[in-house]
Each structure stands twice: as C-alpha cells, then as structure tokens.
Amino acid sequence: MLRLLSLVCLMAVTMWGGVPTVVAADPSKPVPVPMPAPVAGVDPVDHDVDTFNPNVYSLDESGHGPKHVTRSPFTDPASDIARQVTSVTWFSSLVFLPFLVLPLLLLLYVIFKFRDTGDGRKPATFTGNHTLEIVWTVIPCVALVVVSFPTWFILDHMEAPPVHQKDRMAVRVTGKKFAWDYKYLGIYKDAKAEEKQEIAVGQFLGIQEPLVLAKGRAVELHMTSDDVNHAWWIPPFGVKKDCIKGRDTYAWFTPDTIGFFKGQCAELCGDGHGLMIITAVVVEKPDFARFIALQRVKDDTLKVWTAIQPPPGTAIDDKVLREAVAGFLAKGRSPERQYALRFWIACNYATLQRVPPPTGVTIAEIFGAAKGGGAAEIAAAIRTRRAMVDALLKELGAVASADASTEVAPISVVALPVIAPSVVVTVATGAQP
Amino acid sequence: MTAAAVMPPIPITRYSGVMDWLTTVDHKKIGLMYFWFTVTMGIVGGFFAGAIRVQLATPGAVIESIQAAHLAGVELPFNLFSENRALFNQMVTMHASVMIFFTIIPGFIAFANYVVPLMVGARDMAFPKMNAFGFWLLIPAAMLMLSSFFVQGGAASSGWTAYPPLSLEGAGSNPGQDMWIMGVHLAGVSSILAAINFIVTIASLKAPEMKWRDLPLFVWATFFTSIIQLTATPVLAAAVTMILLDRNFGTTFTIASSGGDPVLYQHIFWFYSHPAVYIMILPGFGAISHIFAAFSCKRVFGYLSMVLAVGAITLLGFTVWAHHMFSVGMSPELAYYFQVASLLIGVPTGIKVFNWLATMWGGTIRFTTAMMFACGFICLFVLGGFGGLILALVAVDFTLTDTYFVVGHFHMVLVGGSVMLLFAMTYYWWPKMTGHMLSEKLGKWVFWLMFIGVFVTFFAMHLSGANGMVRRVPVYFADFKFSNYLTTFGYLLTIVSSLLFYADLFLSYRRPKITVDDPWKINDVQQSFEWATSCPPPVYNFVTVPPIPVLDQMSDGHAVRDKTLGDGDKPRETDKPTH
C-alpha cells in the first residue's frame, strides 16, 4: 500500500512538473575541507582508508565484508531510482498476477474435474463462445493500459537529466577490458585555477578502485567504452546502461544508502567478463568532499610511495625518502596536504596487502621480512614504514606550519553546469579495434 | 482401398538401406532424419549446458573464494575453466547456437515436414528435392560450427548474439567466428528453403475441397511460422554478413572509429532474432491444440480466434525487436513504444492459453504422456510469460536485462515451452511416424522428471537474476551460490529425464508394429487425414484423397459439414507422383 502511495505521489510530482531550480553554490565562498571526526584510539587515516578503499578483496567467502554490503536490486534498493523501480515492479506484478494465477487454477480445476473416469460421460461439444473470447481479449488490454501510465512516468523520470535535483554531479564512466575508469566532471573546481580540474579514478596495483559517491547527491553517469561493449550495473542502484565505443549513454540516480556496493560487468566482453568487477562506495557529503580533496594530491604522493616501497629486494634509501617528502612539502605544507600524504601511504598499503603478490615473490619478500613471514610480521613492517613517513612529516612539515593556510587554497564546491544527456554523441575516434 | 485398383503406384527403382536414406526425397523420411538430427544436436547442446552448469557449481565459480585462494596462493580443488575462460565463452556461444539453430528450429521443422503434407492430404511437399537439400544443408552447417572448436583460437566466443566489436576480435587469426557466421548462413538458407516449401505446399497442395478455413491449426501455425522464416532469416544473414565483411574485407559497418555503428548490428540482428523466438514456438502452439482436442475428446475451442491470434503474434513479432536492447540507450519515447508493443503480444498469447483451457473444459480427458506434456507446457509457459511481461517494462528492464532473470525467462519459455511441446508432439505423433508406440509407463517418468527439472532449473535462474547475478559469467559473488547449486541440481533431473527419453526412442523400435491407423482412437474428433492412413503412411501417402469428412472448424454445431473430401476413387488431377 505504501509503495502504491509513493508511486501515486511520484506520478503527481512528475505531472505537476514541480521542479526546484538549481541553486548554484557561490564559488567565492570556499567550503573548507572537513577532516574526519576524531575517534578515540583510531588513527583518522585508518578510518578514511576503511571508508574510501574497500575493494572486492575485502569481501570474505560468505560475501560479507565492509559494512553494509547490499546486493539485491529489489530487496535492498539503495537509490531513489531503484526505489521507484522496485515499487513499479511490485505494482505491475500485482496487476499481472491474475494472468499467472488464473490459468494455473483453471488448469488444475480442469485436470481434476474433467478427467476421464470411465463412467461413460459424453464430452461437451461446444466449439466457441464469442462473449467469453471478447472478455479474455479485452481484460488483458485493460491491464496493459493500467500498467502503462506509471511505467511511462518512471521511464521519463529516469531518462531525463535530473534538473530538479538541487545537488548533483557528473561522472564519466569508461569501460575497458577488464576494468573501469571514472572521471569526476563538472562539480569540483579549483578556486585558484579557473580551468575545470577533472579527477580520475581507476586502478591501483591492478585492482579496481571504487567509485565514491555522496549520499543524497544525484550522480549523472556518462558512459562509454574504450574497446568492446560493456555494461555498468550495480544492482541496488537500479540503473544499467551499455558502454559502447563511439556512443555516450546516460543514466542518473541519487544514492541514499551509505555502504559498499558491488557488481559485475553486464555485457559479454571477453575472457575477463566475469571478473570485470564494479565497486562503489557511498559516503556522507563531507566525507565525499574530503575524498575529492585527497584525490587532488594523489599524484604528488607517488614519489614518496616509490621511495617508501622500493621494488622487492631493495632496501629503503633514507636519503631518497627524505628528498621525496621534502619535495612533497615544497609544493605546500598545509595540514590537509600532510594528512593526504599519510592517507595515501596507508591506503596504498591497504591495497598492497589485499593484492596477490606478483608471481615468484611472496608478500613477505616485498617487505624484506624473513621468508615465510606471517601476517603479524607484515603488519609490523607496514607500521614501521608508515611511522617513518610520519616522523619525516613531523620533522620537515612543522617548519613553516604558520603560513600553511596561505599556500594552498582551500577546496571549494561549485555548482554543476547542466550536462544534457546526449544519446548519440560520437565521442571516440581512436584507432580501429 | 478401391482407389489402388484405379491408379496403381508408378513403379520406381529405388535404392535400399543407407543409400535410400541418403537419396530420399520422401517428406516422411526427411522428417525422420530432421528428428534424429535434432535429437543428436540436443545431446551436444545439452553437453555444453552441462559444462556451464558444472563450472557454476564449483568453488572456482565464487569470486570471494577465488580471491581468497589468490591471496593464499593456493589452487581451488576443482575448477573447470580457470585456465581457459575463453573456453567458457565458447561453450556459452555454442550452447545457444546449437540449441537454437540445430535443435529447436529443425525440431519443429521435423514434425511439420512429416505431418503437414499428411494433414492437407498431399502426397509430398511441393518441392521434394529442395526439401532434401534443405535438410542436408544443416549437416555442413553444424559441422562448421562444431569443428571450429579445433581451429586456432577456438570456436566463436562472443555469444550467439555476436555483438561487435567483440565479434570482430581475432579477425585474421581466429577463424572460429567466421566459421560460426558461415554456419549461420547455411542454417539460414536451409530455413528459407523449408519455409518456401511449406508455404507452397499449404497454399497449393491442400486437398481440393479443403478451404483455408478448414486447415488444421498445426498447418496454420506452420504457415505463419514459414512466413516469419522467409521474411526474417535474410535479415539475420545480412547482419552476420556485416560482421563477416568487417572482419575480413575492411568494411566498417560496425566500427565506430571509422564511422560505423555497433548498435546498427544489434538492431538488424534482433529484427531477425525476435521473430525467431516465434519460429521456435508457434508450430508447437498449433500442434498442442490438436493434442488438447484429441485427448479431451472435444473439438478445438475458438478456431478462428486461434488462427487470428497466431497471425497477430506473427505480425506483432516484427515490431518489438528493440526490447532486447533497451540498455544501449534510446530515446524514452522509442523505448516506450517497444514496451507497449511487447506487452501487446501478451494479449494474443493469453487468448491462446484461455482457448486451450476452454478446449479441455467439459471434455473427458485422457492423461496420456502427450497430454501430460501439454498440460505441463501450459504451466511452465505461463510462468515464463509472466517473467516476460515484467521484462517488457523498460524501467524494470534496465535492472533486469543481461541478468539471469532474462536467462531464466527465455529458458522457461523455450525449454518449458518449446521443448515440452516437442516432447508432447513426439509422444503424440511417434506411432504415426514409425509405427511403434513409445512406452506410456516410461513416458510418465520422463514427464515428471522433466517437468520438475525444468521448473527447478529455471525458477532458480530467475532468483539468481532478481538478486543481481549477470549472465554469461563463469564466476559470481557468493550471494548467488545457493540458487546456482539449485539450478545445477535441476539440470541433473532434466538430464536423467532426457536419457530415459532417448532410451525409450530406441526401445520403441523393438516393440511390435501397430496395425491400426489411429492408435489414440481420436479421429472421430480430429477428422484429420494423418490419422486416416496407416502407421507409418505408405510412400506417396494417398493415392486418392481419403474419404473422410472435413471438419467444419468454425461451426459450433454437433455435426461436421456435410461434405466428404474426395469422391473415393477419382484420382486427383493436381497430384502427380514426383521423384
């Protein structure tokens, strides 16, 4: 009943066309990046790593893993679109149910009532009944009309750009064999640099990084492919579109549940089709702003990462590491930047621990631990290395912390320009496959 | 019969034994060869399905287990396709191709070949040699597809839909996909030849007194099916030819970077392949009407609306193709049109289901194996159709397309529908085709195992899909473990049932030949030519048009139209024996 009501409400809203206007955030008023709230006994860095960096290796063998893993599109919808799709599915199923149940009941009745019992009963001789035939032609037609209205409104709602959503962003999704590249478009702008800064998320150490979304913020997905057809689908979000080279397909939804989401590529794309895994994380908006801020400094941290994690069999060169950290701080030494460096080191280690080691090398060897070193030993090695970076940051970063805020402009949130869904836009003109 | 004295059969020297089968143009022998070809290919396709089901029931299919084993550096105990995931895709492709092109479509052609000329009172098909040619084309077609497993790079692995750009991969180095395309071409030519033959046979060789409104429903259904085959199959040939040209001759029909469009292929492909699903079920719709009427001791309810419904399905079938590809992105108005048209097909289909129930209503029903398969068909087909109604809704389809819900849906209507129909038709017409009865006792086992097996297998697939499992994957998340094990269990039931069925087919030849024309004792209701001749019918079927009354299909009265076909001993002018 509630679902029916919500459906009627949705129809009413859509027909009334009551669309709130887009409220643009003022770019001149930067929104400060929120740091994670301190939790007693937990390094906020570890908290953020847990939040932003779960991947499919985090799942245990019963399918559980990071908090709130949801899976089923119809029992655990996690976006507004999915909820509407669920309600229209239930509604249509109810309308169609008589056409499933009635023939089955009639069949059972006929089977038991009219079986030949050998009592010499003469079979009936009628061969038609126009009234009956008209009835069972017209009633299904009526059912189709009943179902047609809500399905149209929902379809129209799904396919039109969400201009009625105050808060929204756009992501370019590119499928490639057998991973996903995401590019955040159109919402975050560097206040200092005028040009739009796009943030790309892809793979690290061969593992798919999750698409991070903000709860309550509509996300428009513009999908395409680098090679063969793929399809992006996370079941609880209720949208699926093919990613086709040379085309730009479009879908949008507003995630409304915090958690970790998983899916598989839904269009046959070759040998790795089944393991072309899609992961997404939905976080609160402040966390999302922090995630974007962290992404901005990711490239700067790579030098430090290569210094602290040299190739297997090589020892850490203290001088190189010190230079890398100093180089990182030379570009800016605000607390946000220092936090970002600590985050990325921790984040990369979290991934490294979850990735199968390259062939011929054990994970213990990667950390220079004794052969056959256990998990505890590896964890200790990681702790030591993170501590080395922390110590260097403390030593080198404290020098000029006074002028930190002037060096790097805080990050601001800018309203998104409307990106029209272009169904048949040719985007790629690359080499022939 | 006195007719034999009037016009003795023309003596023709014939081969005997194997050479007779290789050179025959007799529609009955060709029908039987189609049947055994279908059975053989069913075993091959079933084997591929088994390989898929075994993979999906092993620990190596659960992603979480694979990851855990990866991290621990251990091997999973039994993992069919871990080393060669391409082989899994080849299995998926070939399972579909074999089942569609070589099992279900020729399966119905087998019965149509055998029964349609008998039903219309003809001596053979209109073009007997073309008929034989059509059958013999299927052999190289099947050989081409199946032997491609042994070429470099293996068989085609882009699914039976062969979507580009995936199907363009390996051009020049892996001929498997090209062999698949050639196989489809040959099977298509065979299909077109059969369609022309049926249309001409029905239109011009039906008994002189037999009018269109007198045609038995199976003949009507075959007629409409042939129209679909004739008009849609060339479109499939066009679609796969684009792939062939793009792969080998430098054209760019489907290559986006050179101005082509991969979605063009999908539209053209589904323009054939949606009507093709009706090729795979409409003849069975016609046949099942006879079975219901025969074993209820009644006449078909609503003959005219049955014919019109098949006609409507034929027409509408051509207007709904894009519901297979809503997710490629099309304007909502266009998608909505395809939704409404797809739902509309439910109306004539519903008419047929209700008419079948009304045919049984008030009868004295004998539950022979054929009748049980027919009732089982209604049950499973209605279930499968319900899933189809849900899938037709675009908004819901965005979630469900390319999941196991779709797989469950079309298997429920193809196996629960078409294959159950083929079983029913086999049990019904086998005595007529071979002169041997199939075992009713064994038949009950075949039916119940098949019915339960099909239901469990494909209902569990619906569950997997509704929970979010995508199709054509060799691995899945741990959430779907239970429903996949259930599916594999159901598959085992259907396999046991099929083995019993094959055993029954072979055993039937050891039973004594039946001597009556009408072993089911149904022809006082059926009034059709095929039960008015011996089992199996003689070469050239009828010397004269047999003296049985034509059923006035549309009268609701008690008597048949006061007309007897044939004068008993006057030879037909139109009918010359051909060789």
Q: State the helix count of chain B.
A: 18
Outline type of chain A: elongated
Largest sheet of chain A: 5 strands, mixed
CATH topology of the domain at 27-278 in chain B: Cytochrome C Oxidase, Chain A
Mean pLDDT of chain B: 88
How many structural domains in the coordinates of chain A? Answer: 2
List unreliable stretches of 5+ residues of chain A: 13-31, 188-195, 400-433
Q: Return the CATH architecture of the domain at 27-278 in chain B.
A: Up-down Bundle
Q: What gross morphology of chain B would you assign? A: globular
CATH domain class name of the domain at 27-278 in chain B: Mainly Alpha
Give the strand tally of chain A: 15
Characterise the protein shown here.
- The complex is a heterodimer of chains A (433) and B (579).
- With 433 residues, chain A is α+β, with helices and mostly antiparallel strands.
- Chain A has two domains: 318 residues, Cupredoxins -  blue copper proteins (Immunoglobulin-like, Sandwich), CATH 2.60.40; 101 residues.
- Helix content of chain A is 39%, strand content 15%.
- Chain A has eleven helices and 15 strands.
- In chain A, the strands form five sheets. A five-stranded mixed beta sheet of chain A has the order 5-3-2-9-12. In chain A, strands 1-13-14-8 form a four-stranded mixed beta sheet.
- In chain A, helix 1 packs across helix 4, helix 2 packs across helix 8 and helix 7 packs across helix 10.
- The two termini of chain A are 52 Å apart.
- Chain B has 579 residues and is an all-alpha fold.
- Chain B has a domain of 252 residues: Cytochrome c oxidase-like, subunit I domain (Cytochrome C Oxidase, Chain A), CATH 1.20.210.
- Chain B is built from 18 helices and no strands.
- Chains A and B meet through helix 3, helix 4, strand 11, strand 12 and strand 13 of A and helix 4, helix 5, helix 11, helix 12 and helix 13 of B.
